[in-house]
Amino acid sequence: MGIEEILHSGEKIVEIFYPSRWAYFWYYLIGAILLPFYFIGAILILIAEILRKANKYVITTERVLHEYTFLSRSIRSAPYSKIQDIYLTQSLTERLVGIGTIHIDTAGTSEIEIKFKGVKNPFKVKKIIEEKRMKKW
Predict the structure, then answer these.
(1) Of 22, 46, 99, 111, which is least surrounded by CB within 10 A?
(2) Can you give the residue range of the structural domain that contains 93?
């Protein structure tokens, strides 16, 4: 079952993102260092890639979604009409490698509903979400 199967009638996917490999830099670095030692390094690199691909960030014509699929499956979504705030955070290291986290806050809760962690070109992603949100108003 893919994300396409949970889309509403007439809803279309605009963009799909995955976290950048930079978001898992330490896994890859330690894995590369340990590669000669009994494949421990290869296992670490494989784990990093599985965790990275387990997170899928989707922007549709109607809402934003975060799907996490590893052993179980979790999907969080927020329709544009419920989004109250969209903000971006970047550490110094993230700024240097061009990644960031998009925080999407919705009405009715004090928690951040959806986070797009470690995405490339975070300003572009934020702009796409804001433009879709403004079209819904």
Answers:
(1) 111
(2) 12-136
The whole-model pTM stands at 0.87
Q: Give the integer Cα–Cα distance in Å for 108 and 112.
A: 11
Inside any domain, residue 7? no
- The secondary structure of the chain as a DSSP string is --GGGGPPTT--EEEEE---GGGGHHHHHHHHHHTTTTTHHHHHHHHHHHHHHHEEEEEESSEEEEEEESSSEEEEEEEGGGEEEEEEE--HHHHHHTEEEEEEEETT-SSEEEEEEEEESHHHHHHHHHHHHHHH-
Are 60 and 7 contacting, i.e. CB atoms less than 8 angstroms apart?
A: yes
pLDDT profile of the chain (137 residues), mean per 10: 84 95 94 87 93 95 94 91 92 96 85 88 95 79
Phi, psi of 50, deg, nearest 5: -65, -45
